[in-house]
């Protein structure tokens, strides 16, 4: 590594981020059949406000100033078959919660479902109303 490359690799900005990247995350967008319903589910789950909603796309704002969460309509959308023996998953979201049991109950009341197979003892895997897996984990785990 040249001296210039080493200096660039160790440059850190005022927020403490490494300065080697050239892009910033703008938003995570989740494909689904009904963006209005899925945005409502995650809005309640996270306590985030809706910035935009229409039949094709919805956006929730992150109140902590991070990237927003988007939901886009996909014609012919089918849930990921990750709970099937041959199934896989494309992505999943994990969330910290203060009380795993209470958070699980609230997510289920909002429309999430709980698969019979769980991947571990400290992470609770649930399925959102569009069929995407997501995890709840205790903050102190």
TrEMBL record:
Q: Which domain of life is it from?
A: Bacteria
Q: What are the residue boundaries of the VOC domain, all occurrences included?
A: 24-139
Give a Pfam family name.
Glyoxalase_6
Do you know which InterPro entries this protein is assigned to? Glyas_Bleomycin-R_OHBP_Dase, Glyoxalase_6, VOC_core
Under the heading PANTHER family, the entry gives: CONSERVED PROTEIN, HYPOTHETICAL FUSION PROTEIN
The protein here is known as VOC family protein
